[in-house]
Design goal:
5-stranded parallel beta sheet; 5 strands; 2 domains; elongated; 10 helices; alpha/beta
Length: about 210
């Protein structure tokens, strides 16, 4: 049986997420917090098995809370969520020790699967992805790709199918196809191979 501490400064969002998470197998309690400061204050007494944090919050943001929390409780497991999934936020959060990063456009099944994996002690990043985060940020030249489009592009470069990319990102295959179409339009290419070639030429992937 597991417990979770969920933090989002918007109550309606927090309660909706908490309701979704009631379907996670083995998760018995979802504690809620409205600020990063509240998470830091309540964590020692609650000792949850995982913490789900919104990145964009007044006061301490999710990245800073993660850094401070892991400084005091190295075994804490933090999953970050963001409505504005900027690559800068993703890299910062993962570098300070979060075990995963999800945009809020993830569907309910994807969110629950990710939380279940975190509760089971898994890192949501592969070893290669973790190494990439630790060494350098992605620098995009030319068209501005969203963090999700960059992740899809990374999956293409690794030779993964849309289904495999979707599974690794906790989204559906159809969602991957939508992001792929958007990045094709932005880069002016018409297929996966051309998109990957464009990315290596521009230094988006290395």
């Amino acid at each position: 049986m597991s417990t979770l501490l969920l933090c989002d400064d918007h109550r309606v969002v927090r309660e909706a997420l908490a309701s979704m998470l009631t379907t996670v197998p083995g998760l018995t309690t979802v504690h809620q917090a409205g600020s990063g400061e509240e998470v830091l204050a309540r964590y020692p007494a609650l000792a949850p098995d995982a913490v789900v944090l919104d990145i964009r919050m007044p006061g301490l943001d999710g990245v800073e809370v993660t850094r401070l929390l892991l400084g005091e409780h190295p075994d804490a497991r933090v999953l970050l969520l963001s409505g504005e999934a900027r690559e800068e936020d993703r890299v910062r959060g993962l570098r300070v020790g979060a075990v995963g990063f999800l945009p809020k456009d993830v569907d309910a099944a994807g969110l629950c699967s990710a939380v279940a994996a975190v509760l089971a002690g898994e890192d949501l990043l592969s070893r290669a992805q973790r190494r990439a985060v630790s060494t350098a940020e992605v620098v995009v030249t030319g068209p501005s790709l969203s963090p999700r489009e960059l992740q899809v592009l990374e999956g293409m470069a690794a030779g993964r199918s849309n289904r495999e990319i979707g599974k690794s990102l906790w989204v559906s295959e159809d969602t991957v196809k939508v992001h792929a179409k958007k990045l094709f339009v932005k880069t002016g290419v018409h297929d996966r191979a051309a998109a990957v070639a464009w990315a290596f030429r521009r230094g988006v992937l290395c």
